[in-house]
Amino acid sequence: MRVVISAGGTGGHINPALAIIDKIKSEDKTSEILYIGTTDRMEKDIIPSKGIPYVGIEMQGLRRSLSIKNISAFIKYIKGIKVCKREIKKFNPDIVIGVGGYVTAPVIYSAKKLGYKTLIHEQNSILGLSNKMLLKYTDTLCTSFESMKPNKVHYVYTGNPTSENAIIKKAYKKEDFGFSKSKKLVLIVMGSLGSYTVNEVLKKAIDKFDDKKYQVVIVTGKKYYEEFEKLKRSKNIFLFPYIEDLPRLMKVTDVLVTRAGASTLSEIMATTTPSILIPSPYVTENHQYKNAKDLVDKGAAIMLEEKNLDENSLIEKIDYLINNDNLRFDIRENLNKNAKKNSATLIYNEILKLINK
Hints:
Layout: E1 2-6, H1 11-27, E2 32-38, H2 43-49, E3 54-57, H3 69-91, E4 95-98, H4 104-113, E5 118-122, H5 129-134, E6 140-143, E7 155-157, H6 162-168, E8 185-189, H7 196-205, E9 215-219, H8 225-229, E10 237-240, H9 246-250, E11 255-258, H10 262-271, E12 275-277, H11 287-296, E13 302-303, H12 311-322, H13 325-338, H14 343-356
Parallel strand pairs: 1-2, 1-4, 2-3, 4-5, 5-6, 6-7, 8-9, 8-11, 9-10, 11-12, 12-13
Helix pairs in contact: 1-14, 3-4, 6-10, 7-12, 10-13
């Protein structure tokens, strides 16, 4: 199987793309992959480091408001199509896959115009701008949320492929990090980069954890770690700038406090971790709120909106969930009931269907 795959900009797009690549390689040892990404976003370093052939194109996201910068973005898009058509024809794939980010627009468009089969995956509960534009150029749309039912396109509810990876990962031992094995664990993490807004609240809340019977792990993000290191804190608070393979720690976590990005939610469902979701209000179409609400409506998470967030509301929510064993049990049951545990496999099956048509 020969596959061109494209995703860019954030880990929320890149990690699902990598999960699909891993599944293809595990099922078809002779498969060949070509990854098309940008020349200046994080995928340009991550993908080549994994030994995956990579082509970078200059791309720029469109602004939703009228802006002269959209002229530059359009010019790069046209140039990107020229490069994509050349590289796709040269590679001659069986299928071309887009996994989100504006770099996928010229890739999927070019592939369809050249007559190749195309598939796109949407991680969020609403379509991203690129995927919305690409619906007419795709043969199959794979969705992460059952509630997404777009018109005029063949779609399949597959879930997010990162969930399958999270399920098979072995849980960390609390002792490996210096945590108490017997105490409950609260994990607070706002993504690999951290969140300035939430971290400011955490700085005010840090001394309020002193008398708690549970232990608290705060993943600050590398940018903010030194600021937290200077703060006085009790022995039940642990700081990390970043934790590799976070789902492995989520498996021994009693309460997770986090954003509501699509990949994070898929890992929450895969690891059945009771969570307090603080959706970022700074994302397109407020999609993190809609992602979180999908879980909350199923009784599978608690939400704390950033507009209501302060040190007191945060502690109150954590105490409420950590001290309510029955509620955490119910949340785990609801997560388990709604989780797609074979998402990467389902996507792989859709790829095969298109190739074999």
